[in-house]
Amino acid sequence: MAPRIPHPGRRRAVRAGAVAAVLCALLTWWLVTTEGTPSPSGRMSIATGTPSGVYAKYGELLKPYLAHDLPGLDVRVRHSQGSLDNLRQVASGEADFAIATADAVAKYRDGNRPGAGHLRACARLYDDYIHLVVRKDARIGSVRDLKGLKVGVGPDGSGVQLIARRLLAAGELDFARDITPVKAGINNLPGLLRNGGVDAFFWSGGLPTLSLQQLSEKFPVRFVQLGDMIAPLQKLGEPARHYRAAVMPMDAYPFAHATEPVKTIAVANLLITTDRVDAALTEGVTRTVIRSRDDIGKEVHAAQLVDLRTAVFTDPLPLHTGARRYYVSGKP
After folding, report:
1. Distance between CA 225 and CA 202 in Å, rounded?
2. Phi-psi bin for 189: left (phi > 0), alpha (psi -120 to 50), beta?
3. Which of 44, 79, 134, 198 satisfies CB 3.0 to 4.6 Å to 192 for a cystine?
4. What whole-number distance in Å separates Cα of residue 201 and Cα of residue 160?
């Protein structure tokens, strides 16, 4: 009997079935290696900042999004003194994630502080703008005019105090001798300005900062330009490389009644962790940060500047492997 010759249509059907089987296998592999990965569980903490600052508000608003996207996690938000304190908490394991300014990260790392070598970044978030706040009628037009005055510089361990010290040095003022430093935070500084406890104060935060918004609504204040400090800061060399010239728009604080934008200085904020934190957890947290930008930005306007295109620029820290995995995946 002559061998049966398969019908062309049957051959095509067999070939199509084989292709379908391969595609099905690939799809199954993809689901197992991505969506099928066990969701992180346990307790997770993120260090933010003082209760009335932008860090703290951002952290509180991020918390429910993390809880929704990573339901196995018990998410805790920790208050702190600011960037340097946050770095200490993350490096020591007291917190799993934190927000810190790039200049504070560089200082911590370059100073070989405990755990500095383990620090990693998840994302570049938004920029902090440096504010120098004074009474509207104060005869202060520059950092150099602070000599002999009581100046709020932020608490020890804060990013505010770090930049305040550098700005004073750029203005050729000695922190200990030429001013009376008041080491208070944003919770207390507006009240101190109103009652004469300070003549001026520094603040580093996103635009706008709620405490300053509320202060400007109730008390005549203005923001001193810092544009003349750019060149002197640059002379400090490496410590100043994370600062850039910026402009505070008039509508950032409409009740301050500025007649023109205020030249100032900005520094990037980073979401940080350590290489000891699980990659799946870091990937999930990074994804939530990017996904929640628009919703959180409705209440914390600075969060609108979180951008997938710039989030990977986390100098001076390398990306955590989990965060890199998220960016490479190309998934929104």
Report:
1. 12
2. alpha
3. 198
4. 10
